[in-house]
Specification:
The chain is α+β, with helices and mostly antiparallel strands. Helices cover 18% and strands 51% of the residues. The protein has one domain (43-171): Beta Barrel (AOC barrel-like). It contains two helices and eight strands; from the N terminus they run H-E-E-H-E-E-E-E-E-E. It has an eight-stranded antiparallel β-barrel with strand order 1-2-3-4-5-6-7-8. A hairpin with a 5-residue loop joins strand 5 (114-124) and strand 6. The chain is globular, with a radius of gyration of 27 Å.
């Protein structure tokens, strides 16, 4: 009598292929999602700008930057800036406080591009001291995908202007 072939407990490859393909697609999808997230970790930055008040045009000055964002090349270490917009948003006469919205364009000294920052200022006209929040609106060159935000403070630098210190995080 002919013998029957033994039945295998393993499924043939063509039955397992969809499961293997699905698992491979899942792993590749996770890797594709995880890589940009890992690359987009926030990096600390401190920017110090020296503002020159210009009665005949926009305020301008120079800046230096430091922190992980500079060390990793996300942002340049220095350059210049110019105020491109200023708007008075409110005044509290009994406290000497004014609120301002200022847009600044920073130009990197190494030619790598520009980035635009909006700052919302609370200024005390009696002391000249300001505090503000800031956010990156966009950029050009190496900074086309730059994002970030933070807080800052200003101290007088009489008679020419003031010194702004920005502290926050950047992503690129």
């Amino acid at each position: 009598m002919p013998t029957q072939p033994e039945e295998s407990t393993m499924r043939p490859f063509h039955h397992r292929a969809p499961t293997i393909v699905a698992a491979l697609v899942a792993v590749l999808t996770l890797l594709a999602i995880a890589a940009p997230i890992a690359a987009a970790s926030p990096q600390g930055v401190t920017i110090v700008s020296h503002v020159t008040f210009n009665p005949d045009g926009p305020n301008y000055g120079d800046f230096t930057a430091a922190g992980d964002a500079v060390d990793s090349g996300l942002i340049c270490p220095s350059g210049t800036f110019v105020d491109t917009a200023i708007r008075f948003a409110g005044y509290q006469s009994n406290r000497g406080m004014v609120q301002l919205l200022v847009v600044k364009e920073f130009t990197c000294g190494d030619g790598s591009g520009t980035f635009v920052v909006k700052i919302q200022i609370q200024a005390n006209f009696d002391t000249g001291i300001e505090s503000f929040t800031w956010v990156v609106l966009g950029g050009t060159g190496d900074y086309g995908s730059l994002h970030g935000a933070g807080t800052g403070s200003t101290v007088p630098n009489a008679p020419i202007g003031n010194i702004n210190t920005y502290v926050g995080f950047l992503l690129g």
